[in-house]
Amino acid sequence: MKNLMIKFALSASLLLLAASASGQTLDVKILNLTNPAQSNGIQVGDVLNRTVEIEVDSQYQLSKAALPLKGENRDGIELSDLTFKSTQHDKKSIYTIALRYQVFASAAKPVVMQLPEEQFTFTGGTQALSVNVPVWHFWFSPLVAEGITNAKDNLQPQYKPALIDLSAHYTRLLLSLALLATGLLGLIYVNADKRWLPFMNGDFAQAHRSIKKLRSDQASTRQALMYMHQAFNQIYGANLFANELDQFLVVNPKFLKLKEDIRIFFAQSNAALFAGHTQTSHQKSSEQYMGELITLSKRLRDCERGV
């Protein structure tokens, strides 16, 4: 009878222990464990990441005091960082813990190493709960073969980097410079008064430069008219009169677009030089008339240059 009572007591104790273990299993569990994708060819300095998701009753909290210590080095594997976050779902707390390890081990030949087992503790309930993240094995590969002699043999000669073909860039640069030079010459040719280029010193170009230097008075107006007539005569090859303008324009069609302006000029010039009138029929001042002569001489110069 005594033996029967002892056996009954032992059975009851075992049942209570099993119930307790079963209760803990239901209170905390690993939902997901993500290990590094590569388990071979790991070398010194490589970073290995693990992520674990743990589900626990919402009354429990992850014990920060029991977390692995950052910077702890175990067999050449250093825990360089640890972060975690929690979410609530159906009276359950889900903890996502990210572990980052860095390899500082050294070996002369390939060896099997491991990320250490980690334990996480949860408190806040009737009793503390814990869950273990198992070890993860990987192959460690040395940077060079074993032995200094072999290391020297493995050294590779240095090569000069391949040269980049710049011919296309040189071609584009030369074309750009040519376009720039052409544009500058065009601007000079159209706008410049100086004789920077041989073909810029036409008869009306000379007349325009001379007229711009004159003052705006009666004597200067007569001198400006003489410069204009001198340019017409040089181009025509003889003294040009108003009744010969059509013949002049036939021989020099580049001035056709200013036909009416030229006729007006000859009419006003005849009035000023030969009829004794220093002003036009509209009684323009010498300053105003000189400005018109400067403008007309510039337009005739542009026609002369073909612009």
Short description:
By secondary structure, the protein is of the alpha+beta class. It has 8 helices and 10 strands.
Structural features, described:
With 307 residues, the chain is of the alpha+beta class. The protein folds into two domains: 27-143, Immunoglobulin-like (Sandwich); 177-305, no CATH class. It starts with a helix and ends with a helix. Residues 17-25 and 278-283 have low confidence and may be disordered. The radius of gyration is 51 Å and the shape is elongated. The strands form three sheets. Strands 1-2-6-5-4 form a five-stranded antiparallel beta sheet. The chain has a three-stranded antiparallel beta sheet with strand order 3-8-9, with no helix packed on it. Helices cover 42% and strands 22% of the residues. The longest helix has 26 residues, at 2-27. It contains eight helices and ten strands.
Order of helices and strands: HEEEEEEEEEEHHHHHHH
Q: Helical amount among residues, as a percent range?
A: 40-55%
Oligomer: single chain
Strand order of the largest sheet: 1-2-6-5-4
